[in-house]
Amino acid sequence: MMPSTDFFEYQSRSRVFYDRILVGYHDEALRLVERLLNDAETDANGCIVADTIHPKKVRFMGYQDRAYRFVFYVRNRRSPPAGEVVRHRCNNRRCINPDHLVAGTQLENIEDDRDFRANGVDFALLLRG
């Protein structure tokens, strides 16, 4: 008997959730993203933040995620691959401004925090599109 070449690919609950949005609920999710962005305030640095102490959470289709992740993945029409995190170029975890969000690795996120502690925010980065 030949060994099977089939393999199991683990998909996180988050990946399954965003895949499901992209297939059948993207327009509805985009409306929620626009509502989140419109309901939040823009600060002097261009960060769009909700009136919360911690990163805002959003619930959609029975799943809860941080608003910045929801905004990033819905606006970019993608699902999170394993090991990917959403980084804040502004170093403000409450920010949901799509222009301040970028995909990266956990290591890059840690390096961002280290650089911020050493140098502060490089506001020139926020002007890039």
Automatic annotation (TrEMBL):
Q: Where is the HNH nuclease domain?
A: 81-109
Q: Which Pfam families match?
A: HNH_3
List the molecular function annotations (GO) for this entry: endonuclease activity
Database matches in InterPro entries: His-Me_finger_sf, HNH_nuc, Homing_endonuclease_His-Me
Record keywords: Methyltransferase included? no
Q: Which Gene3D superfamilies match?
A: Homing Intron 3 (I-ppo) Encoded Endonuclease, Chain A
Arranged from A to Z, the UniProt key words for this protein are: Endonuclease, Hydrolase, Nuclease
The protein depicted here goes by the name HNH endonuclease
